[in-house]
């Protein structure tokens, strides 16, 4: 199904998956995100770049309502997933998070076996009717996480015993096991060495065929390598959003230019 | 206490690495002093612990041994079973007064056989040597074995607490000069009988399994019944405090919004943990006995009162354990679409389990050793002479508890009880030690790395 030409053309159409309009985020009295408008496309890797504290992670977390866990955090504006307002009162954040998976900065496998790490999501969402189906889902997820070959013989050993890069790929496998439509990645490579980073980047590129991927990164090289769209955040504002090639070669806003050339940030 | 103080702009003098400058010397000296203070503090702690344990063991170990007199008692049929048909109901009509003469006669016979010279005469004169409980013990045995009536049976009869004290060195001829309960002549007899092995000390199971006894029968008193009282109290505490405490902590830690109300609750939980236990006792008295009309002196009420006292401890330690679980685990669970409750129960709680269990067991251990609240709900000074008949009466019938029993013994006049109080403390400490061991084992077992 990955190689079907029809599919390829669909990838190229790049329909809008998430659209954010006039989004404001407040932490108590702090106005953390100001007037952000962005269209995140389907089957595309979108990178959020910007200096520390610019709000890119905060904005990422509003996309699957992980900010709900912070009491003082307040979100205003409209964020739509496939045309549905995800902050509507009728939306259960749990269902939303099953559709919008997340991978975190620090690899955070559960202190359980590799198998249980991946099987946990499908189990709580009732995606498998029996053990055989669950096995299949786990294998598929681990293959998509590009870690199957390394762990297939030790699915019962603890996920915390893997190396950092393996743990992060396990977390990606865990995130894709629930068949999300969007995958949010919050600096997924910041705790990894260059080899593990390149493995994860390759993986991100493959994931693009099935998911809309949003990645927050500190590394501009990484953004340039893996993304098709880039959004530059500065002091809570979305300064510039466009094709990655354009942002890095021909930025419109002087702040973007200063940042990518290393003058600020 | 930081060395990074501003030196006042003076240029530090240049030194080679091989010579120490004044500042470094001073710093090293203060470090050395601190180490000595620390070692001294630990040394003092260990010293006091050793003194305490030595005092407890040397004072209390005697309680585990008791003096017995081996007496062959002739179970005279004419006195114990007049009808001769060995009907237990019929035989039960003979009270302990029927047995006392038999035992005294038997003891007299032993004395005569030993060849000891004595100014005493046969009969009541020698009854001070044996425990007042002896007749009851023989009677119980006879009622259990009616077929043996008519025979002569060897009994290990408890010596009186004075005789016991004489063997343990607590009682001497000088100390009994004013004592109406025993005379020097009795001790002479004991000396002779002891040489012949008739009077001897042996391990006293009754101290561990028996019930408390009246003031005049120190030799008979045991901890068993109050141990059961403690057990039923601990069951009550565990069944109530663990679920309530853990549920409250989970709600406060994981679900409750942070606002003034939860802040208020949080501060007050810490305050409750510092409330003197006697206050909980008076609360228990007012709430459970005067208002709810639960029975006085019942382990259930004791357990409820101790639950109130233990709850803050459990809540505080459980919250600490929940806080210690890294937030990344919660994020991970929420990130794959677990609900808050699933994240808590599937991931956070199992990781917090060792801390919760340790906190609970430490809370229980605290409750086990608590005396003051029991004073107020009537669990002190009550003499429960029998084991409770079942689980139900175990919770509701009047009883004491181990620390209350120890307190009760410690305030009685007879020095024999003083020894038993120390012995009770040894048993209590063993229980506490066992509970702490369980806490450590559980901790090791459930502890997982993440």
Written account of the structure:
- The complex is a heterodimer of chains A (265) and B (450).
- Chain A is of the alpha/beta class and 265 residues long.
- Chain A has one domain (9-260): 3-Layer(aba) Sandwich (Rossmann fold), CATH 3.40.50.300.
- Chain A is built from 11 helices and 10 strands.
- Chain A has helices spanning 5-13, 56-62, 93-99, 114-125, 131-144, 148-151, 164-176, 194-207, 220-226, 244-249, 254-260; strands at 16-27, 30-41, 45-49, 73-81, 84-85, 100-103, 182-186, 212-216, 229-234, 237-243.
- In chain A, the strands form 2 sheets. In chain A, strands 6-7-8-3-9-10 form a 6-stranded mixed β-sheet, with helices on both faces. A 4-stranded antiparallel β-sheet of chain A has the order 2-1-4-5, covered by helices on one side.
- In chain A, β1 and β2 form a beta hairpin.
- In chain A, α4 crosses α5 (131-144), α5 (131-144) crosses α7 and α7 (164-176) runs parallel beside α8.
- The longest helix of chain A is centred in the middle third of the chain and has 14 residues, at 131-144.
- Chain A is globular, with a radius of gyration of 18 Å.
- Chain B has 450 residues and is mainly α.
- Chain B folds into 2 domains: 65-203, no CATH class; 224-446, MetI-like fold, CATH 1.10.3720.10.
- Chain B is built from 18 helices and 3 strands.
- Chain B has helices at residues 22-60, 77-80, 88-91, 96-114, 134-144, 161-168, 184-195, 205-209, 224-255, 260-273, 277-291, 299-324, 327-335, 340-368, 372-376, 391-396, 402-410, 415-446, and strands spanning 65-74, 152-158, 199-203.
- The longest helix of chain B has 39 residues, at 22-60.
- Chain B is extended, with a radius of gyration of 31 Å.
- The model of chain B has no long low-confidence stretch (mean pLDDT 87).
- Classes of the chains: A alpha/beta (265), B mainly alpha (450).
- The interface between A and B is medium-sized, with 27 and 22 residues.
